[in-house]
Each structure stands twice: as structure tokens, then as C-alpha cells.
Amino acid sequence: MKNKKKNLKQMIALGSKTAKAGFKNEQDVIDRFNNWKNDKIAQDWLTEMNYKVDDIEFVKALKVRGSYKADVQVRITIVIKLKSQEDLQNLQVKLVSNLEGGFNQIDKRWTDKYAELWNIPKDVIKILKLFTGEISPEKKKKLKDLRRMSFLEMNEIDQGKIINFFNENKILIISDLLKGRGEFSADWTLVICKNVNESKWVLKSINEVMNVFGSGDVRITREGSLKIGKIGMQRKGGDGGRESAKMLQFKINPVELFKS
User: Fold this and answer.
1) Which domains are present in the chain?
2) CA–CA separation, 37 and 138 (whole Å)
3) Using the 8-state DSSP alphabet, how is residue 116 labeled?
4) DSSP label at 58?
5) Residue 170, burial from CB neighbour count under 10 angstroms (0-12, 13-18, 19+)
6) What is the pLDDT of residues 172-216, one digit of tens each?
7) Which SS3 state, helix, strand or coil, does residue 258 take?
8) Would you say 190 and 206 are in contact if contact means Cβ atoms under 8 Å apart?
9) Would you say the pTM of this structure is higher than 0.90?
10) Tens-digit pLDDT profile for residues 36-45
11) Helix 122-132 with 156-168: angle, nearest 10 deg
């Protein structure tokens, strides 16, 4: 186990860059972008985003309000051969507290909302609602949790339906979960492993992010949940037993981007 953690830290060291200052929240990212002329880290970010810092005339970063994939919107004005070109880049910021990382929620909705989004067939909707507990399972079944069924507790036909649906719609689902749609869909993902005095960071285009987390099969896990590549799907749970515990939730471990 110690060797595994050591190897993980070595991979992160190779895949990351260091900021000689801590990060508390998204506002620190915004402040750095807005102070880009004097902030070496912001200049490094802009370089990672394929800009030549000497060509940039103006940078303005704003917090995106509402439920969108992007957390920070950066408006960049570039002067190239006496012509002004204005770019708008949307960043999502993921803060993790240690190099081992942890699971970060990327999307959470009721099953019916996903059904509208992805045109899920009625039989698959029913299976998902049995999984979350929106539909109560038959009392005669021997279940680990009498309120719901894990995918492993379902028959092979229903397991196959779940795997087939997410396999056939994998690209659309991954795009919606990681990038989103519309004006504030994410263009970049910035992951920061925050520390008091020093932070590791990695900045990737959203296409790279989707490739990293989308790699791998759609499969049922040993715990009876679902994995779509490196994206986990589970019943939300918690919430003191309130109805919202029956929502579907998708998670990733942002540290995977360091390893890529």
C-alpha cells in the first residue's frame, strides 16, 4: 500500500506544476487571472491554454453564477498583427485536499431529469429507479438494503439493459456530465491540490478530460453500482433519509488528471 501511494505521488509530481502559494477556493483562481500581468501562475495557465502571454492585451475573469459545468469564465483579448481577437474560455475548478484525491460530485439529478436529457427507455428508467429506491423492490426479495436494489441484486437481463444503454450513449453521457451544454459549457478543467504553502495544479482541455475519464468499459462494480470509464454512478444517499437521497449521482476522482 505504501509503494502504491509512493508511485501515485511520483506520477502526480510528473503530471503537475507547483504554485508557491496556497489556494483556498475558486476566488483565488479568479484573482490570479485578473492579476495576470504580475502573476506567474496565471501566466503559466494562459500558456497551457495555448496563448502567447506577450500577445495578450486584457484578461478578465468572472465567477459563473448558477448550476453550470464552468465555475470561472475568463475573457481574454489578444492582439495579433494589429488585429483584436476576443476569446471567451470557461474553466471548471476542482480543489482536492491531498495527493490521493477523493471523489468529487460532477452531476446530481432525479432519474426523470436524466431520462429527458438522454432519452432513456421506460424499462431502463424503472431499473434505475429500483437502484435509487424511487421504486420500492418486492418485499420477498433478499436484499442488502430493503429500500432499494443494487445492480448485482438484479437479474442478468436487467443488468444487460443498464450496461447496453450506457455503452450505446457513452459519448453523449460523458460530454453532458463533464462538459455540459450551452453558453457555460466547460472548455478547460483546472485541478488544484491545495496546501497551505504550496499547491500542485494541472490544467487540461475538456476534450482531454473527457478522454481521461471516459476511458474504460461500462461495468457493474463489486459494490453493485455502475462505472462508465472512470466515472462512478451511484444512489446519492445521505440527506438524513430525505427523498433527495434517491437521486442519481455521478462522481470522479480529479487526481486522475495528474496521472494523465
Assistant:
1) 2-96 (3.40.1350.40), 104-182+212-259 (no CATH)
2) 64
3) H
4) E
5) middle
6) 999 999 999 998 999 999 998 876 566 789 999 999 999 999 999
7) helix
8) no
9) no
10) 999 999 999 9
11) 110
